[in-house]
Amino acid sequence: MHVSSQPGRTIHFGPDFERHYNWRMKWIRKGLIWVHRYLGMALSLLFVVWFVSGIGMLFAGGMPRLNPQEKLYREQEIDLSRVKLTPLQLPHDSYARDGSAGRVSLRMLLDRPVYRIDGQTIFADDGSVLDGVDKTTAMEIAGRFMGSPKVSAADMQYSLVTDPDQWTLTQRGLPFHKFSFDDGTQLYISTETGEVVQKTTRGTRALAWAATIPHWFYFTSLRNNQPLWYQVVCWTAGIGCVLALAGIALSFIQLKIRRPFSLRNIASYIPYAGWMRWHYIAGALFGVLTFTWVFSGLLSMEPFGWAAGPTLQGDLESTLTGGPLNVAEFPNIDAEAWKKLLPDRYVKEIDYARIQGDPYFVVRTEPAMQLVAVAEDLRDRPHQPYYSQSGIDPDRVLINAKTMLIRTDPFSVGSLMSRVTETWPDVPVTEFTLLNVYDSYYYSRDGQRPLPVLRVKFDDPVKTWIYIDQTMSKPVAAIHRLDRFERWIYNGFHSLDFSFWYYNAPVWYSVVILLSLGGTAVSVLGMYLGFTRMTRAAKRVAS
Predict the structure, then answer these.
(1) Contact, 426 vs 387, CB < 8 A?
(2) What residues form DSSP beta bridges with 176?
(3) CA-to-CA distance for 25 and 19, rounded, in angstroms?
(4) Using alpha carbons only, what angle is made at residue 498 by residues 460 and 286, rounded to the nearest 5 degrees?
(5) Where are the beta strands (DSSP E) in 258-333?
(6) Where are the domains of the chain?
């Protein structure tokens, strides 16, 4: 054996070197086979579940939730003529004497208008405070939500949810009234506010059990123990990465290439037969894909806080609003004037807001002639590695509370940038651009993120990018350098959401499903081989 290291010079290795080299390679090969074999026996079923449920995740999009558009549709139109009091006239202490408050909104609850002010629910007709919602009241709310105001106890099953169950794992504000209807619908209603906070159906629950729950390990007993759930997901994904890497290495090491190399004879280079041969071929084709999916899934948990980093210190949202909300700046609601201002529309929700120093009514409405009862439940990627607001309001209206005129123009780029520089006067801005289409980091295939947005790039240590909704003068995304890196190694590898096919839904779905089936084939063959090996071993022990 010899190696030519320089022109005209040859280094010779004796038989001892070649013997030791072959001995080391033999044990490396055996070690990789041992690791891949026994980790495969332990995790092959889990890999099958991950790949099959991953296909389901394309359609489930996550755990069941109450679609905001459906919730808006089912809400009662606000009877503005019954709003007798302004927030400042309410007899409670949720705001300071000067009228400053946190969040204020106006809705309907069982034919009466109510204010929701920083967690309290207060009736707008007489100022009485809602002291919780009992079973009977919650039953009426559930019936109205389902379109049956006269529903009785015989038409539904009731339970009080005091601890998170399978469908309220991430919900806050327990306990909830839970009602189950004959058609399979389940509603969860807050005992404090009477708000419907969750809805599931037979279909969404079945899809969650087939996809989201096994894919995310969202089993109630495990998910309620957050530290344990986190460790289980990280360790299983980490061990899965070792299993996939060992398989990739063996796909090269075990290939018996003979010289001269010929593509015609490549089938003869594979040293296996039967199902093992097919497992080898499938692993060679889809092994790298299997590793990238498992590895990117591990990174989504951000082990060791690898993607965490310093962020810009400053409250941009407060600067954009121009100060705290002051309910004293809002006039009494004149039902007739509002009817003329919003003809042929049902007013469902009114939020009191402060935007760039001025008071605004943020009104969510619905056309009086509603053609489509419930909007389609559109969803974005189930995991977002950085903060990015989702959800748009196509029928939202901004009304200036001082002039009582509808604002149709977005806020100017100059006004937004002046508040950005006011928040971070010492941080250089390298670029700001008004985007009317999505970019690679702020995007949505189904258009569920607001546009236009102002993108501002900073020259801070982590190269932060801020996105601001021009219509609402509100920050909707904040992304630093590690977030952008994670976007590609997680969403890029895990969701394959590259722009050249991501917005072509049939192509993207077809590619992801095809590749998922390839990973499933590798895992199923590995599971079968592991099962047969364990069966043979058991028979030998028994005999």
Answers:
(1) no
(2) 161, 190
(3) 10
(4) 120
(5) 325-326
(6) 13-64+210-309+490-543, 131-192, 316-479
H-state helical runs in 392-504: 413-423, 481-486, 499-502
Q: Cα-atom radius of gyration of the chain, to the nearest Å?
A: 30
Distance between CA atoms of residues 354 and 58, nearest Å: 38
d(CA 245, CA 253): 12
Q: Identify whether 260 is preceded by a cis peptide bond (ω within 30 of 0).
A: yes
CA-CA distance, 520 to 282, in Å (whole number)?
10
Amino acid at 271: P
Dihedral Cα 107, 112, 116, 117, nearest 10 deg? 130
CA 369, CA 520: separation in Å to the nearest integer?
Answer: 48
DSSP for 186-202? Answer: EEEEETTT--EEEEE-H
Classify residue 111 as exposed, middle or buried by CB count within 10 Å of its CB (0-12, 13-18, 19+): exposed
| Closest-CA residue to 223 (of 171, 186, 158) | 171
Q: Which two tokens stand for residue 175?
A: 């306990």
Report the predicted TM-score, pTM, of the whole model to 2 decimal places: 0.85
Number of C-beta neighbours around residue 78 at 10 A? 24
- Per-residue pLDDT band at 79 (split at 50, 70, 90): very high
Calpha distance 135→321 (Å, rounded): 39
Q: Is 10 helix (H, G, I), strand (E, B) or coil?
A: strand
How does pLDDT run across 207-239, given as a tens digit for each residue? 999 999 999 999 999 999 999 999 999 999 999
What is the rounded distance in angstroms from the CA atom of residue 400 to the CA atom of residue 353? 10
Overall average pLDDT of the 173-181 stretch: 94
Q: Nearest-CA neighbor of 121 among 323, 177, 110, 145?
A: 110
CB-CB neighbours of 261 under 10 Å: 9
Residue 323 has pLDDT above 90, yes or no: no
Q: Tokens for 399?
A: 């009304």
Q: What is the reported pLDDT for 372? A: 45
Please report where in the chains the tokens 């034919």 appear, as a residue: 111
Q: What are phi and psi of 232, to 5 degrees?
A: -60, -45
